[in-house]
Write a structure and sequence with these properties.
heterodimer, A: alpha+beta, Alpha-Beta Plaits, two-stranded antiparallel ribbon, 2 helices, 4 strands, about 20% helix, about 10% strand, elongated, B: alpha/beta, TIM Barrel, Nucleotidyltransferase, domain 5, 2 domains, five-stranded mixed beta sheet, 14 helices
Protein backbone atom coordinates (compact mmCIF):
# COMPACT_ATOMS: atom_id res chain seq x y z
CA UNK A 1 0.00 0.00 0.00
CA UNK A 2 1.47 3.25 -1.11
CA UNK A 3 0.35 6.53 -2.62
CA UNK A 4 1.89 8.00 -5.72
CA UNK A 5 2.55 11.56 -6.95
CA UNK A 6 2.20 12.06 -10.69
CA UNK A 7 3.34 14.67 -13.20
CA UNK A 8 0.61 17.23 -12.58
CA UNK A 9 2.35 18.02 -9.26
CA UNK A 10 3.53 21.66 -9.18
CA UNK A 11 6.23 21.14 -6.53
CA UNK A 12 4.59 23.41 -3.99
CA UNK A 13 6.22 21.67 -1.01
CA UNK A 14 2.98 21.54 0.98
CA UNK A 15 2.95 17.76 1.40
CA UNK A 16 6.61 17.14 2.16
CA UNK A 17 6.78 18.34 5.78
CA UNK A 18 3.46 16.70 6.67
CA UNK A 19 4.37 13.11 5.82
CA UNK A 20 4.66 11.13 9.07
CA UNK A 21 6.86 8.52 7.37
CA UNK A 22 9.23 10.90 5.55
CA UNK A 23 8.25 9.08 2.40
CA UNK A 24 7.95 12.22 0.26
CA UNK A 25 11.06 13.69 -1.29
CA UNK A 26 11.93 16.52 -3.67
CA UNK A 27 12.70 15.21 -7.13
CA UNK A 28 12.62 16.44 -10.70
CA UNK A 29 10.46 17.18 -12.50
CA UNK A 30 8.15 16.64 -9.55
CA UNK A 31 8.07 15.35 -5.98
CA UNK A 32 7.93 11.60 -5.42
CA UNK A 33 6.75 9.15 -2.78
CA UNK A 34 9.00 6.32 -1.66
CA UNK A 35 6.62 3.35 -1.92
CA UNK A 36 8.62 1.38 0.64
CA UNK A 37 8.09 4.06 3.29
CA UNK A 38 4.52 5.20 2.52
CA UNK A 39 1.91 3.86 4.92
CA UNK A 40 -0.95 5.99 3.55
CA UNK A 41 -0.77 7.53 7.04
CA UNK A 42 -2.39 4.50 8.63
CA UNK A 43 -1.88 4.54 12.35
CA UNK A 44 -0.91 8.22 12.29
CA UNK A 45 -3.81 10.14 10.79
CA UNK A 46 -7.32 9.42 9.65
CA UNK A 47 -6.66 11.05 6.27
CA UNK A 48 -3.55 10.71 4.12
CA UNK A 49 -1.76 13.97 4.81
CA UNK A 50 -0.31 14.60 1.36
CA UNK A 51 -3.67 14.19 -0.32
CA UNK A 52 -5.35 16.36 2.31
CA UNK A 53 -3.24 19.42 1.60
CA UNK A 54 -2.44 18.91 -2.09
CA UNK A 55 -4.01 21.76 -4.11
CA UNK A 56 -3.80 19.97 -7.46
CA UNK A 57 -6.62 17.69 -8.48
CA UNK A 58 -5.47 14.30 -9.68
CA UNK A 59 -1.84 14.70 -8.61
CA UNK A 60 -1.95 11.99 -5.94
CA UNK A 61 -3.11 8.45 -6.71
CA UNK A 62 -3.91 5.55 -4.44
CA UNK A 63 -2.55 2.01 -4.85
CA UNK A 64 -5.29 1.27 -7.38
CA UNK A 65 -4.28 4.29 -9.49
CA UNK A 66 -7.36 6.34 -8.58
CA UNK A 67 -7.07 10.04 -7.84
CA UNK A 68 -7.59 10.85 -4.17
CA UNK A 69 -8.69 14.33 -5.23
CA UNK A 70 -10.65 13.75 -8.43
CA UNK A 71 -11.35 16.54 -10.96
CA UNK A 72 -13.63 19.24 -9.54
CA UNK A 73 -13.20 18.12 -5.94
CA UNK A 74 -10.77 20.83 -4.84
CA UNK A 75 -11.30 23.82 -7.08
CA UNK A 76 -15.05 23.43 -7.39
CA UNK A 77 -14.70 23.90 -11.15
CA UNK A 78 -16.91 21.29 -12.86
CA UNK A 79 -14.66 19.30 -15.25
CA UNK A 80 -16.98 20.04 -18.18
CA UNK A 81 -16.72 23.79 -17.53
CA UNK A 82 -12.94 23.55 -17.37
CA UNK A 83 -12.83 21.73 -20.69
CA UNK A 84 -15.06 24.40 -22.24
CA UNK A 85 -12.82 27.18 -20.92
CA UNK A 86 -9.73 25.45 -22.32
CA UNK A 87 -11.34 25.26 -25.75
CA UNK A 88 -12.28 28.94 -25.58
CA UNK A 89 -8.76 29.94 -24.59
CA UNK A 90 -7.13 27.85 -27.30
CA UNK A 91 -9.46 29.28 -29.95
CA UNK A 92 -8.21 32.84 -29.29
CA UNK B 1 -23.36 39.43 12.03
CA UNK B 2 -21.01 36.59 12.85
CA UNK B 3 -19.03 38.48 15.42
CA UNK B 4 -20.53 36.57 18.32
CA UNK B 5 -18.42 33.63 17.28
CA UNK B 6 -15.43 35.74 18.01
CA UNK B 7 -16.65 36.87 21.38
CA UNK B 8 -17.36 40.46 20.59
CA UNK B 9 -20.87 41.79 20.89
CA UNK B 10 -20.60 45.23 19.47
CA UNK B 11 -18.18 47.47 17.75
CA UNK B 12 -17.36 51.01 18.64
CA UNK B 13 -18.51 53.52 16.10
CA UNK B 14 -15.97 54.59 13.61
CA UNK B 15 -13.96 57.44 14.97
CA UNK B 16 -14.43 60.62 13.03
CA UNK B 17 -11.54 62.55 11.71
CA UNK B 18 -9.99 62.45 8.37
CA UNK B 19 -8.54 59.55 6.59
CA UNK B 20 -8.02 61.07 3.21
CA UNK B 21 -4.82 62.50 1.90
CA UNK B 22 -6.25 65.91 1.36
CA UNK B 23 -7.14 66.59 4.95
CA UNK B 24 -5.54 69.75 6.27
CA UNK B 25 -3.52 70.13 3.14
CA UNK B 26 -1.38 67.19 4.05
CA UNK B 27 -0.21 65.03 1.23
CA UNK B 28 -0.05 61.87 3.27
CA UNK B 29 -3.11 59.69 3.79
CA UNK B 30 -1.59 58.49 7.05
CA UNK B 31 -1.42 61.96 8.54
CA UNK B 32 -4.08 61.19 11.11
CA UNK B 33 -2.12 58.32 12.63
CA UNK B 34 -0.19 58.64 15.86
CA UNK B 35 3.43 59.69 15.55
CA UNK B 36 4.91 56.30 16.49
CA UNK B 37 2.96 54.59 13.72
CA UNK B 38 3.85 57.21 11.18
CA UNK B 39 7.50 56.78 12.09
CA UNK B 40 7.19 53.08 11.37
CA UNK B 41 5.63 53.51 7.96
CA UNK B 42 7.55 56.60 6.89
CA UNK B 43 9.90 54.71 4.57
CA UNK B 44 7.60 51.85 3.65
CA UNK B 45 6.42 52.07 0.05
CA UNK B 46 3.58 49.62 0.55
CA UNK B 47 2.14 51.43 3.56
CA UNK B 48 2.75 55.09 2.90
CA UNK B 49 1.36 56.56 -0.27
CA UNK B 50 3.94 59.30 -0.14
CA UNK B 51 6.85 56.96 0.56
CA UNK B 52 6.07 54.87 -2.49
CA UNK B 53 7.32 57.65 -4.71
CA UNK B 54 10.76 57.43 -3.12
CA UNK B 55 11.45 53.98 -1.73
CA UNK B 56 11.56 50.52 -3.22
CA UNK B 57 10.64 47.11 -1.92
CA UNK B 58 11.32 43.54 -2.82
CA UNK B 59 9.66 40.20 -2.26
CA UNK B 60 11.34 36.84 -2.05
CA UNK B 61 9.44 33.70 -2.92
CA UNK B 62 10.55 31.18 -0.31
CA UNK B 63 7.15 29.96 0.90
CA UNK B 64 5.41 27.91 -1.76
CA UNK B 65 3.15 25.76 0.41
CA UNK B 66 -0.30 26.95 1.33
CA UNK B 67 -2.81 25.78 3.88
CA UNK B 68 -5.94 27.15 2.23
CA UNK B 69 -7.39 27.42 -1.25
CA UNK B 70 -8.77 30.73 -2.50
CA UNK B 71 -10.98 30.88 -5.56
CA UNK B 72 -8.84 33.67 -7.05
CA UNK B 73 -5.61 31.72 -6.78
CA UNK B 74 -4.02 29.01 -8.87
CA UNK B 75 -0.81 27.83 -7.32
CA UNK B 76 1.18 27.55 -10.46
CA UNK B 77 4.24 29.73 -10.24
CA UNK B 78 5.96 29.25 -13.54
CA UNK B 79 4.11 31.57 -15.90
CA UNK B 80 6.55 33.71 -17.88
CA UNK B 81 5.79 37.36 -18.66
CA UNK B 82 3.01 37.63 -16.19
CA UNK B 83 2.72 40.17 -13.49
CA UNK B 84 0.09 39.45 -10.95
CA UNK B 85 -0.01 38.57 -7.29
CA UNK B 86 1.15 35.09 -6.48
CA UNK B 87 3.13 34.64 -9.65
CA UNK B 88 6.87 34.11 -9.53
CA UNK B 89 9.43 32.71 -11.88
CA UNK B 90 11.90 31.48 -9.34
CA UNK B 91 11.37 29.72 -6.06
CA UNK B 92 14.21 30.45 -3.64
CA UNK B 93 15.75 28.60 -0.74
CA UNK B 94 16.26 30.78 2.33
CA UNK B 95 20.02 30.91 1.56
CA UNK B 96 19.41 32.12 -1.98
CA UNK B 97 16.79 34.57 -0.77
CA UNK B 98 19.24 36.17 1.66
CA UNK B 99 21.85 36.45 -1.06
CA UNK B 100 19.34 38.06 -3.38
CA UNK B 101 18.20 40.56 -0.76
CA UNK B 102 21.76 41.67 -0.05
CA UNK B 103 22.44 42.01 -3.79
CA UNK B 104 19.31 44.07 -4.40
CA UNK B 105 19.80 46.28 -1.35
CA UNK B 106 23.35 47.02 -2.46
CA UNK B 107 22.32 47.79 -6.05
CA UNK B 108 19.03 49.57 -5.36
CA UNK B 109 19.79 51.66 -2.28
CA UNK B 110 16.20 52.99 -2.23
CA UNK B 111 15.15 49.48 -1.19
CA UNK B 112 13.91 49.66 2.41
CA UNK B 113 11.59 46.71 2.79
CA UNK B 114 11.83 42.98 2.27
CA UNK B 115 8.57 41.11 2.24
CA UNK B 116 7.66 37.47 2.09
CA UNK B 117 4.27 37.08 0.53
CA UNK B 118 4.11 33.82 -1.32
CA UNK B 119 3.16 32.16 -3.58
CA UNK B 120 1.76 30.09 -0.78
CA UNK B 121 1.46 31.33 2.76
CA UNK B 122 4.64 32.40 4.57
CA UNK B 123 3.31 31.18 7.90
CA UNK B 124 2.38 27.81 6.44
CA UNK B 125 6.13 27.59 5.69
CA UNK B 126 7.46 28.78 9.04
CA UNK B 127 10.88 27.17 8.73
CA UNK B 128 11.70 28.69 5.38
CA UNK B 129 10.22 32.08 6.28
CA UNK B 130 11.90 32.41 9.65
CA UNK B 131 15.25 31.12 8.40
CA UNK B 132 15.18 33.98 5.91
CA UNK B 133 14.19 36.56 8.52
CA UNK B 134 16.77 35.36 11.03
CA UNK B 135 19.63 35.68 8.58
CA UNK B 136 18.51 39.10 7.38
CA UNK B 137 18.06 40.50 10.87
CA UNK B 138 21.70 39.64 11.40
CA UNK B 139 23.23 40.50 8.06
CA UNK B 140 21.11 43.45 6.93
CA UNK B 141 19.85 45.23 10.03
CA UNK B 142 18.85 48.32 8.04
CA UNK B 143 16.16 46.48 6.08
CA UNK B 144 12.60 46.31 7.34
CA UNK B 145 11.01 42.90 7.22
CA UNK B 146 7.39 42.22 6.64
CA UNK B 147 5.13 39.34 5.94
CA UNK B 148 1.79 38.79 4.30
CA UNK B 149 -0.47 35.95 5.38
CA UNK B 150 -3.91 34.46 5.00
CA UNK B 151 -4.00 34.31 8.80
CA UNK B 152 -4.85 30.64 9.32
CA UNK B 153 -1.57 29.84 11.08
CA UNK B 154 -1.09 33.35 12.43
CA UNK B 155 -2.03 32.95 16.10
CA UNK B 156 0.47 30.12 16.60
CA UNK B 157 3.24 32.12 14.89
CA UNK B 158 2.77 35.50 16.55
CA UNK B 159 5.38 34.86 19.24
CA UNK B 160 7.95 33.76 16.71
CA UNK B 161 7.17 36.79 14.54
CA UNK B 162 7.74 39.10 17.47
CA UNK B 163 11.16 37.58 18.09
CA UNK B 164 12.28 38.69 14.67
CA UNK B 165 11.32 42.25 15.30
CA UNK B 166 8.96 42.46 12.39
CA UNK B 167 6.86 45.54 12.74
CA UNK B 168 4.44 45.10 9.86
CA UNK B 169 2.14 42.26 8.97
CA UNK B 170 -0.45 42.11 6.21
CA UNK B 171 -3.43 39.80 6.63
CA UNK B 172 -5.71 39.08 3.71
CA UNK B 173 -9.24 39.22 5.08
CA UNK B 174 -11.99 38.96 2.51
CA UNK B 175 -14.89 38.35 4.85
CA UNK B 176 -16.01 38.11 8.45
CA UNK B 177 -19.03 35.95 7.65
CA UNK B 178 -18.60 32.21 6.95
CA UNK B 179 -21.49 32.33 4.46
CA UNK B 180 -19.51 34.75 2.35
CA UNK B 181 -16.30 32.88 3.12
CA UNK B 182 -17.65 29.63 1.71
CA UNK B 183 -17.99 31.39 -1.66
CA UNK B 184 -14.34 32.46 -1.58
CA UNK B 185 -12.52 29.57 0.13
CA UNK B 186 -13.41 26.05 -1.04
CA UNK B 187 -11.25 24.44 1.67
CA UNK B 188 -8.66 24.89 4.38
CA UNK B 189 -6.16 22.43 5.85
CA UNK B 190 -6.62 22.41 9.60
CA UNK B 191 -5.59 19.93 12.31
CA UNK B 192 -4.38 17.44 9.71
CA UNK B 193 -7.58 17.44 7.70
CA UNK B 194 -9.03 19.17 4.71
CA UNK B 195 -12.13 21.05 5.83
CA UNK B 196 -14.49 22.30 3.17
CA UNK B 197 -17.08 25.01 2.82
CA UNK B 198 -18.62 27.04 5.59
CA UNK B 199 -16.91 25.14 8.40
CA UNK B 200 -13.50 25.80 6.95
CA UNK B 201 -14.29 29.44 6.31
CA UNK B 202 -15.46 29.89 9.89
CA UNK B 203 -12.17 28.55 11.29
CA UNK B 204 -10.17 30.75 8.94
CA UNK B 205 -12.13 33.85 9.96
CA UNK B 206 -11.68 33.08 13.66
CA UNK B 207 -7.95 32.60 13.26
CA UNK B 208 -7.58 35.79 11.22
CA UNK B 209 -9.40 37.90 13.80
CA UNK B 210 -7.54 36.33 16.68
CA UNK B 211 -4.20 36.86 14.94
CA UNK B 212 -5.07 40.47 14.15
CA UNK B 213 -5.86 41.16 17.79
CA UNK B 214 -2.73 39.42 19.05
CA UNK B 215 -0.53 41.45 16.72
CA UNK B 216 -2.02 44.82 17.52
CA UNK B 217 -1.80 44.04 21.25
CA UNK B 218 1.93 43.60 20.74
CA UNK B 219 2.30 46.85 18.88
CA UNK B 220 2.81 45.28 15.46
CA UNK B 221 1.18 47.24 12.66
CA UNK B 222 -1.41 45.32 10.71
CA UNK B 223 -2.62 46.18 7.26
CA UNK B 224 -5.63 44.29 5.95
CA UNK B 225 -5.83 43.33 2.30
CA UNK B 226 -9.24 42.51 0.84
CA UNK B 227 -9.97 41.30 -2.64
CA UNK B 228 -13.08 42.96 -4.04
CA UNK B 229 -15.19 40.29 -5.74
CA UNK B 230 -18.32 41.77 -7.30
CA UNK B 231 -21.46 39.98 -6.24
CA UNK B 232 -19.58 37.97 -3.61
CA UNK B 233 -18.14 40.31 -0.99
CA UNK B 234 -18.57 43.82 -2.40
CA UNK B 235 -21.23 44.98 0.03
CA UNK B 236 -19.76 42.87 2.81
CA UNK B 237 -16.36 44.62 2.67
CA UNK B 238 -17.81 47.68 4.39
CA UNK B 239 -18.52 45.44 7.35
CA UNK B 240 -15.02 43.93 7.08
CA UNK B 241 -13.53 47.41 7.18
CA UNK B 242 -15.42 48.26 10.38
CA UNK B 243 -14.53 45.00 12.08
CA UNK B 244 -10.83 45.06 11.30
CA UNK B 245 -10.56 48.67 12.32
CA UNK B 246 -12.20 47.88 15.63
CA UNK B 247 -9.62 45.15 16.14
CA UNK B 248 -6.76 47.54 15.54
CA UNK B 249 -5.81 47.30 11.88
CA UNK B 250 -4.37 50.64 10.80
CA UNK B 251 -4.80 50.45 7.05
CA UNK B 252 -7.23 48.75 4.70
CA UNK B 253 -6.25 47.88 1.16
CA UNK B 254 -9.17 46.90 -1.05
CA UNK B 255 -7.79 45.37 -4.22
CA UNK B 256 -9.64 44.46 -7.40
CA UNK B 257 -10.10 40.79 -8.22
CA UNK B 258 -8.00 39.67 -11.17
CA UNK B 259 -9.81 36.83 -12.90
CA UNK B 260 -8.85 35.77 -16.41
CA UNK B 261 -9.83 32.35 -17.69
CA UNK B 262 -6.24 31.64 -18.73
CA UNK B 263 -5.05 31.92 -15.14
CA UNK B 264 -7.04 28.77 -14.44
CA UNK B 265 -8.55 30.01 -11.20
CA UNK B 266 -12.08 29.13 -10.14
CA UNK B 267 -13.23 32.71 -10.65
CA UNK B 268 -11.39 32.99 -13.96
CA UNK B 269 -12.80 29.78 -15.41
CA UNK B 270 -16.29 30.34 -14.05
CA UNK B 271 -16.51 33.80 -15.57
CA UNK B 272 -16.55 35.82 -12.37
CA UNK B 273 -15.76 39.40 -13.38
CA UNK B 274 -13.45 41.80 -11.61
CA UNK B 275 -14.66 45.21 -10.45
CA UNK B 276 -14.52 48.31 -12.64
CA UNK B 277 -12.46 51.36 -11.64
CA UNK B 278 -15.72 53.01 -10.55
CA UNK B 279 -16.80 50.14 -8.34
CA UNK B 280 -13.40 49.86 -6.70
CA UNK B 281 -13.19 53.53 -5.97
CA UNK B 282 -16.76 53.82 -4.76
CA UNK B 283 -16.12 51.06 -2.26
CA UNK B 284 -12.78 52.54 -1.17
CA UNK B 285 -14.52 55.86 -0.61
CA UNK B 286 -17.24 54.24 1.47
CA UNK B 287 -14.76 52.36 3.63
CA UNK B 288 -12.62 55.48 3.99
CA UNK B 289 -15.13 56.86 6.46
CA UNK B 290 -14.04 54.13 8.83
CA UNK B 291 -10.31 53.90 8.32
CA UNK B 292 -7.31 54.86 6.27
CA UNK B 293 -7.55 53.33 2.85
CA UNK B 294 -4.63 52.35 0.73
CA UNK B 295 -4.99 53.37 -2.89
CA UNK B 296 -1.55 52.99 -4.38
CA UNK B 297 -1.27 49.20 -4.20
CA UNK B 298 0.04 47.69 -7.45
CA UNK B 299 -0.77 44.06 -6.63
CA UNK B 300 2.79 43.22 -7.43
CA UNK B 301 4.32 39.85 -8.16
CA UNK B 302 5.43 37.72 -5.26
CA UNK B 303 9.02 38.23 -6.41
CA UNK B 304 8.82 41.86 -7.48
CA UNK B 305 11.91 44.04 -7.08
CA UNK B 306 12.18 47.82 -7.21
CA UNK B 307 9.81 50.75 -6.95
CA UNK B 308 6.10 50.01 -6.79
CA UNK B 309 4.82 49.64 -10.32
CA UNK B 310 8.15 48.56 -11.73
CA UNK B 311 9.81 45.19 -11.72
CA UNK B 312 13.55 44.85 -11.88
CA UNK B 313 13.51 41.18 -10.94
CA UNK B 314 15.21 40.18 -14.19
CA UNK B 315 18.39 41.94 -13.05
CA UNK B 316 18.64 39.71 -10.01
CA UNK B 317 18.11 36.15 -11.17
CA UNK B 318 19.95 33.38 -9.34
CA UNK B 319 22.78 33.06 -11.83
CA UNK B 320 23.30 36.83 -11.88
CA UNK B 321 23.48 37.21 -8.11
CA UNK B 322 25.92 34.29 -7.94
CA UNK B 323 28.36 36.45 -9.89
CA UNK B 324 27.89 39.55 -7.74
CA UNK B 325 30.39 40.38 -5.04
CA UNK B 326 28.55 42.23 -2.30
CA UNK B 327 30.31 44.23 0.39
CA UNK B 328 27.26 44.84 2.55
CA UNK B 329 29.02 47.00 5.11
CA UNK B 330 29.95 49.43 2.34
CA UNK B 331 26.49 49.10 0.82
CA UNK B 332 24.92 50.03 4.15
CA UNK B 333 26.93 53.27 4.25
CA UNK B 334 25.84 54.10 0.73
CA UNK B 335 22.22 53.25 1.53
CA UNK B 336 22.34 55.58 4.50
CA UNK B 337 23.56 58.45 2.33
CA UNK B 338 20.94 57.78 -0.35
CA UNK B 339 18.16 57.66 2.24
CA UNK B 340 19.34 60.94 3.76
CA UNK B 341 19.24 62.58 0.33
CA UNK B 342 15.73 61.20 -0.27
CA UNK B 343 14.59 62.58 3.07
CA UNK B 344 16.04 66.01 2.32
CA UNK B 345 14.25 65.96 -1.02
CA UNK B 346 10.96 64.86 0.57
CA UNK B 347 11.20 67.61 3.16
CA UNK B 348 11.82 70.20 0.46
CA UNK B 349 8.87 68.93 -1.60
CA UNK B 350 6.65 68.94 1.44
CA UNK B 351 7.46 72.56 2.22
CA UNK B 352 6.98 73.60 -1.36
CA UNK B 353 3.64 71.87 -1.85
CA UNK B 354 2.46 73.21 1.50
CA UNK B 355 3.00 76.69 0.09
CA UNK B 356 1.18 75.93 -3.11
CA UNK B 357 -1.86 74.64 -1.26
CA UNK B 358 -2.08 77.87 0.67
CA UNK B 359 -1.86 79.98 -2.44
CA UNK B 360 -4.34 77.72 -4.21
CA UNK B 361 -6.97 78.28 -1.58
CA UNK B 362 -6.31 81.96 -1.16
CA UNK B 363 -6.56 82.67 -4.87
CA UNK B 364 -10.10 81.42 -5.07
CA UNK B 365 -11.77 82.55 -1.92
CA UNK B 366 -15.00 83.94 -3.26
CA UNK B 367 -15.60 81.87 -6.32
CA UNK B 368 -18.60 79.66 -6.48
CA UNK B 369 -18.39 75.91 -6.19
CA UNK B 370 -15.63 74.71 -8.45
CA UNK B 371 -15.95 71.18 -9.66
CA UNK B 372 -13.14 68.76 -8.95
CA UNK B 373 -10.95 67.51 -11.80
CA UNK B 374 -9.15 64.22 -12.29
CA UNK B 375 -5.63 64.35 -13.67
CA UNK B 376 -3.37 61.51 -14.70
CA UNK B 377 0.37 61.65 -14.07
CA UNK B 378 3.25 59.76 -15.67
CA UNK B 379 6.08 59.17 -13.21
CA UNK B 380 8.86 56.72 -12.53
CA UNK B 381 9.10 57.78 -8.90
CA UNK B 382 10.68 60.48 -6.79
CA UNK B 383 7.35 62.25 -6.43
CA UNK B 384 7.91 64.24 -9.60
CA UNK B 385 6.50 64.22 -13.14
CA UNK B 386 9.35 62.59 -15.01
CA UNK B 387 8.05 60.09 -17.53
CA UNK B 388 7.37 60.27 -21.25
CA UNK B 389 3.68 59.66 -22.02
CA UNK B 390 4.50 56.81 -24.37
CA UNK B 391 6.72 55.04 -21.86
CA UNK B 392 4.22 54.99 -19.02
CA UNK B 393 2.93 51.55 -18.14
CA UNK B 394 0.69 53.09 -15.53
CA UNK B 395 -0.66 56.49 -14.56
CA UNK B 396 -1.24 57.87 -11.09
CA UNK B 397 -4.60 59.56 -10.83
CA UNK B 398 -5.08 62.65 -8.67
CA UNK B 399 -8.19 64.63 -7.92
CA UNK B 400 -7.79 68.37 -7.63
CA UNK B 401 -10.48 70.46 -5.99
CA UNK B 402 -10.64 73.93 -4.49
CA UNK B 403 -9.69 72.40 -1.14
CA UNK B 404 -6.90 70.00 -1.89
CA UNK B 405 -5.11 67.59 -4.17
CA UNK B 406 -5.91 63.99 -3.40
CA UNK B 407 -4.34 60.79 -4.67
CA UNK B 408 -7.10 58.56 -6.04
CA UNK B 409 -5.36 55.51 -7.41
CA UNK B 410 -3.35 54.18 -10.30
CA UNK B 411 -4.35 52.75 -13.63
CA UNK B 412 -2.25 50.20 -15.39
CA UNK B 413 -1.96 50.55 -19.12
CA UNK B 414 -0.78 47.23 -20.43
CA UNK B 415 0.00 44.87 -17.62
CA UNK B 416 -3.31 43.15 -17.77
CA UNK B 417 -6.72 43.93 -19.10
CA UNK B 418 -8.61 46.15 -16.70
CA UNK B 419 -11.92 44.69 -17.76
CA UNK B 420 -14.74 46.04 -19.85
CA UNK B 421 -16.36 44.86 -23.03
CA UNK B 422 -14.73 47.48 -25.22
CA UNK B 423 -11.40 45.70 -24.95
CA UNK B 424 -10.96 44.07 -28.34
CA UNK B 425 -8.12 42.99 -30.54
CA UNK B 426 -8.52 45.90 -32.94
CA UNK B 427 -7.79 48.43 -30.22
CA UNK B 428 -4.38 50.07 -30.51
CA UNK B 429 -2.17 50.64 -27.49
CA UNK B 430 -2.93 54.36 -27.64
CA UNK B 431 -6.67 53.79 -27.83
CA UNK B 432 -6.44 51.49 -24.87
CA UNK B 433 -4.48 54.07 -22.89
CA UNK B 434 -7.06 56.71 -23.72
CA UNK B 435 -9.86 54.41 -22.62
CA UNK B 436 -8.07 53.66 -19.38
CA UNK B 437 -7.64 57.39 -18.74
CA UNK B 438 -11.40 57.89 -19.10
CA UNK B 439 -12.71 60.49 -16.65
CA UNK B 440 -9.37 62.30 -16.50
CA UNK B 441 -9.27 65.78 -18.04
CA UNK B 442 -5.52 66.35 -18.00
CA UNK B 443 -2.53 64.10 -18.39
CA UNK B 444 0.76 65.37 -16.99
CA UNK B 445 3.98 63.90 -18.33
CA UNK B 446 7.55 64.94 -19.05
CA UNK B 447 7.05 64.78 -22.81
CA UNK B 448 4.49 63.60 -25.31
CA UNK B 449 4.53 62.88 -29.03
CA UNK B 450 2.56 64.67 -31.73
CA UNK B 451 0.21 61.81 -32.57
CA UNK B 452 -1.00 60.96 -29.04
CA UNK B 453 -1.29 64.69 -28.36
CA UNK B 454 -3.97 65.05 -31.02
CA UNK B 455 -5.84 61.91 -30.08
CA UNK B 456 -5.86 62.79 -26.39
CA UNK B 457 -7.23 66.25 -27.14
CA UNK B 458 -9.91 64.71 -29.30
CA UNK B 459 -10.85 62.47 -26.40
CA UNK B 460 -11.20 65.51 -24.14
CA UNK B 461 -7.99 64.92 -22.19
CA UNK B 462 -5.56 67.84 -22.23
CA UNK B 463 -1.94 66.71 -22.59
CA UNK B 464 0.47 68.76 -20.51
CA UNK B 465 4.27 68.55 -20.63
CA UNK B 466 4.94 71.90 -19.02
CA UNK B 467 5.62 70.60 -15.54
CA UNK B 468 8.35 68.10 -16.22
CA UNK B 469 10.47 67.34 -13.15
CA UNK B 470 8.13 69.25 -10.85
CA UNK B 471 6.57 67.72 -7.73
CA UNK B 472 3.31 66.02 -8.69
CA UNK B 473 0.88 67.54 -6.24
CA UNK B 474 2.23 71.02 -6.76
CA UNK B 475 1.90 70.73 -10.53
CA UNK B 476 -1.62 69.34 -10.24
CA UNK B 477 -2.55 72.28 -8.02
CA UNK B 478 -1.09 74.78 -10.50
CA UNK B 479 -2.90 73.25 -13.47
CA UNK B 480 -6.14 73.23 -11.49
CA UNK B 481 -5.67 76.89 -10.64
CA UNK B 482 -5.05 77.71 -14.28
CA UNK B 483 -8.21 75.86 -15.25
CA UNK B 484 -10.13 77.81 -12.61
CA UNK B 485 -8.75 81.10 -13.83
CA UNK B 486 -9.65 80.21 -17.40
CA UNK B 487 -13.21 79.64 -16.26
CA UNK B 488 -13.16 75.97 -17.13
CA UNK B 489 -14.38 74.74 -13.78
CA UNK B 490 -17.65 76.56 -13.33
CA UNK B 491 -19.74 74.79 -15.89
CA UNK B 492 -22.31 72.47 -14.41
CA UNK B 493 -21.08 69.07 -13.47
CA UNK B 494 -22.75 66.39 -15.53
CA UNK B 495 -21.84 63.61 -13.15
CA UNK B 496 -19.77 63.49 -10.01
CA UNK B 497 -16.16 63.33 -11.16
CA UNK B 498 -15.00 61.48 -8.10
CA UNK B 499 -17.17 58.51 -8.93
CA UNK B 500 -15.71 58.12 -12.39
CA UNK B 501 -12.09 57.46 -11.43
Amino acid sequence: MALKIIESCVNCWACEPLCPSQAIFEAHPHFLIDARKCTECEGDFSDPQCASICPIEGAILDAAGLALNPPGSLTGIPPSRLAEAMVEIQAR
Amino acid sequence: MELKVLGQESLPNAAGGCASSGCGGSTDQLAHLPEHIRAKVHNHPCYSEEAHHHYARMHVAVAPACNIQCHYCNRKYDCANESRPGVVSELLTPEHAVKKVLAVAANIPQMTVLGIAGPGDPLANPERTFATFRALTEQAPDIKLCVSTNGLALPEQVEELCKHNIDHVTITINCVDPEVGAKIYPWIFWNNRRIKGRRGARILIEQQQKGLEMLTERGILVKVNSVLIPGVNDEHLKEVSKVVKARGAFLHNVMPLIAEAEHGTFYGVMGQRGPTHDELQALQDECAGDMAMMRHCRQCRADAVGMLGEDRGAEFTLDRIEEMEIDYAAAMEQRKAVHAAIEANREAQRRKSGESFVSLASLMPKKKELRPVLMAVATTGGGVINQHFGHAREFLVYEASAQDVRFIGHRKVDLYCSGGDTCGDAETALQKTIRILGGCEVVLCSKIGYEPWGELEEAGIAPNGEHAMEPIEEAVAIVYREMAEAGLLERPVEQPTRASA
